[in-house]
C-alpha cells in the first residue's frame, strides 16, 4: 500500500525558515488563499483538521502556507502526479529519510525508482503473489487473531483492537516482503521482537526530523547526541536484521529461490543487486504496509460496529457469497469470493474516503510552475494534497459528503464502481500509483470479513473516536472493544444479495 507513511505529517516544519517566508511573501500566488505565519503556528496542534477546513473553504480548494502549498483540487493533483510528474519529485524528504530507507523504492526518484518499480510491478500483478498474500492473511486472522478474540470474549476482557491489527499487519507485510514471520500476534522471538521494536522507534524518530529545522537534526546527527544517537542505535538493529535475511536468502538454491513468492526472493532472482540495495527493499516495503492497512481496518471496524444496518448487510453478503460457492461459514475465503463482495469493498472504500491512512502527501517543485487553478509554484516549494479534505468535498461526493454511505460506491446492480484516482488519491495516482492497492484491499477484506462473521464488536467508553495524526491517521487512545461470539456463526442470509 504505497501510502508513504513517513512523509511530512505536519507541514509547518519550515516556519522557522525566514528565507522561505520572505520568498513566499514576495512571490505571485494567484487565486489561492494565503495563510499567515502566525495562523499556522496557532493551529499547529490540529494541523490536519485546520488545513482541511481551509482547503474546503477556499474558492480554488488551494491554500498557501509559509511552508508550501496545500490543495484538494483534483485538477491540481492530476497536474502534479501525472501531467508534470517529472517536475514534482520527492525532494527534501529523500534526504530526511535516507538514513532509514536508504534508496528504497519509496525514497528515491529517477532511474533508480524506475528499476525498482518495474521489478515490483511484475510481482504484484501475478496471481502467485495474490495467493501468497491471502494465505498469509488467513494464517494471521484464523490461526492467531480469531483465537485471541475468542479468549477475550470468553473472559469478558477489553482489547485494544487497533493494537492487535497493528501486530497483524506487521506480521503480514514482513512475510510478503521477505518471507520472515515476526509472529507479533503469536509471541515474537527475541530477534524478531528486537527488529519490530527498533523499526518502530526508528520510524518515530525519523518522523520527528520533519518537525524541526534541518540544521538542528543534522547537527545532532553529526555530534551523535539525543534522538539522533538513539536513531543510529535502532537503525543498526534494523539493518543488521534485514541484512541477515538478505544473506540467508542469497545462500538458497536457485530453484528454491525461483519458487518463493516473497518480494525479496523475486528481486534476487531478477538481477545481481547489492546486499544494501536488497536491504532497502525489505525496509521500504515493510514501512509501506506496516501501519496503513491496520489503520484502515481499525477505522472500518469502528464505523461498522457503530452502524448495525451496515454490519447486517456485510453479513448478508458474506453468507450469499458462501452459499454461491458452497463454502460453509468459517471456511477459508478465496480470492474469487472476496472479489464478489462488492458491498464489503464499498464499505472499505467509504472508510478510506473519510479516514485515509496517510492524509497528506507532499511533493517538491523542481522548476517554477503554475497549477491549473492559477496558483504559482516557485522552485523548491512543496505542493501537498490533502486527501482528508478531499473526502469531505461536496464537489466530488455531493451534499451528503460527510455521511458514511457505502452505497455511493455501487451502481444500480450493486456492483462496485471506483472513482477516478485524482478524485480519490488514497492510493496515490499517476506513475507512482500504489502497487499494493489490490493486495491491501484483499488483506483488509479477508481480515474484517473473518472478524465480523464470527464476532459482535462493542466499543468501550466514548463511541465517537478522535483522530490522532503524526505519521498515520489513527484513533486517539486506540480502539478499546469487547467482543462476543455470534450465535450460530454468521447471522446473515444468502437471499439478501441474490441479484
From TrEMBL:
The record's section on Pfam families has: p450 (PF00067)
Q: Which domain of life is it from?
A: Eukaryota
> What are the BP-aspect GO terms?
lipid metabolic process
Identify the stretch annotated as signal peptide in this record.
Answer: 1-26
UniProt keyword terms in alphabetical order: Heme, Iron, Metal-binding, Monooxygenase, Oxidoreductase, Signal
| GO molecular function terms noted in the UniProt entry | heme binding; iron ion binding; monooxygenase activity; oxidoreductase activity, acting on paired donors, with incorporation or reduction of molecular oxygen
Q: Which prosthetic group or cofactor does it need? A: heme
> Which residues does the record give as heme binding sites?
434
Q: Which PANTHER family match?
A: CYTOCHROME P450 (PTHR24296)
Write out the similarity annotation. Answer: Belongs to the cytochrome P450 family.
Protein's recorded name: Cytochrome P450 94A1-like
Amino acid at each position: 500500500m504505497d501510502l508513504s507513511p513517513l512523509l511530512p505529517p505536519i507541514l509547518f516544519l519550515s516556519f522557522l525558515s525566514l528565507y522561505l517566508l520572505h520568498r513566499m511573501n514576495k512571490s505571485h500566488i494567484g487565486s489561492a488563499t494565503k495563510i499567515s505565519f502566525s495562523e499556522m503556528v496557532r493551529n499547529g496542534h490540529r494541523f490536519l483538521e485546520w488545513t482541511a477546513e481551509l482547503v474546503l473553504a477556499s474558492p480554488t480548494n488551494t491554500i498557501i502556507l509559509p511552508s508550501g502549498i496545500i490543495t484538494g483540487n483534483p485538477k491540481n493533483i492530476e497536474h502534479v502526479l501525472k501531467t508534470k510528474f517529472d517536475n514534482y519529485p520527492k525532494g527534501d524528504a529523500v534526504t530526511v529519510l535516507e538514513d532509514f530507507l536508504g534508496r528504497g523504492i519509496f525514497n528515491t526518484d529517477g532511474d533508480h525508482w524506475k528499476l525498482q518499480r518495474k521489478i515490483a510491478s511484475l510481482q504484484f500483478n501475478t496471481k502467485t503473489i495474490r495467493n501468497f498474500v491471502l494465505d498469509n492473511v488467513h494464517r494471521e486472522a484464523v490461526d492467531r487473531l480469531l483465537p485471541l478474540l475468542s479468549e477475550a470474549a470468553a473472559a469478558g476482557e477489553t482489547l485494544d483492537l487497533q493494537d492487535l491489527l497493528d501486530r497483524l499487519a506487521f506480521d503480514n507485510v514482513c512475510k510478503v516482503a521477505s518471507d520472515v514471520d515476526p509472529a507479533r500476534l503469536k509471541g515474537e522471538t527475541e530477534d524478531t521482537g528486537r527488529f519490530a521494536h527498533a523499526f518502530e522507534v526508528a520510524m518515530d524518530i525519523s518522523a520527528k526530523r520533519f518537525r524541526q529545522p534541518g540544521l538542528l537534526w543534522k547537527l545532532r546527527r553529526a555530534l551523535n547526541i539525543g534522538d539522533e544517537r538513539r536513531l543510529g542505535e535502532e537503525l543498526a538493529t534494523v539493518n543488521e536484521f534485514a541484512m541477515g535475511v538478505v544473506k540467508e536468502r542469497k545462500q538458497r538454491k536457485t530453484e528454491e529461490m525461483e519458487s518463493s513468492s516473497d518480494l525479496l526472493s523475486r528481486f534476487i532472482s531478477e538481477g545481481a543487486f547489492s546486499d544494501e540495495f536488497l536491504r532497502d527493499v525489505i525496509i521500504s516495503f515493510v514501512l509501506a504496509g506496516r501501519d496503513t492497512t491496520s489503520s484502515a481496518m481499525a477505522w472500518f471496524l469502528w464505523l461498522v460496529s457503530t452502524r448495525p444496518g451496515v454490519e447486517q448487510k456485510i453479513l448478508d453478503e458474506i453468507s450469499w457469497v458462501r452459499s454461491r460457492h458452497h463454502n460453509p461459514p468459517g471456511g477459508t475465503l478465496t480470492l474469487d469470493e472476496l472479489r464478489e463482495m462488492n458491498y464489503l469493498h464499498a464499505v472499505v472504500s467509504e472508510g478510506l474516503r473519510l479516514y485515509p491512512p496517510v492524509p497528506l502527501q507532499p511533493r517538491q517543485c523542481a522548476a517554477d510552475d503554475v497549477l491549473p487553478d492559477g496558483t504559482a509554484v516557485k522552485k523548491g516549494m512543496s505542493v501537498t494534497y490533502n486527501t482528508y479534505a478531499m473526502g469531505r468535498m461536496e464537489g466530488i461526493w455531493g451534499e451528503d459528503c460527510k455521511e458514511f454511505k457505502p452505497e455511493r460506491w455501487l451502481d444500480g446492480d450493486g456492483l462496485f464502481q471506483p472513482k477516478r484516482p485524482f478524485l480519490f488519491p488514497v492510493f496515490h495516482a499517476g506513475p507512482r500509483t500504489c502497487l499494493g492497492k489490490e493486495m491491501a484491499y484483499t488483506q483488509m477484506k479477508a481480515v474484517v470479513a473473518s472478524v465480523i462473521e464470527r464476532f459482535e464488536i462493542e466499543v468501550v467508553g466514548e463511541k465517537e473516536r478522535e483522530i490522532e495524526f503524526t505519521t498515520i491517521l489513527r484513533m486517539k487512545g486506540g480502539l478499546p472493544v469487547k467482543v462476543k461470539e455470534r450465535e450460530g456463526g454468521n447471522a446473515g442470509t444468502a437471499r439478501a444479495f441474490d441479484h
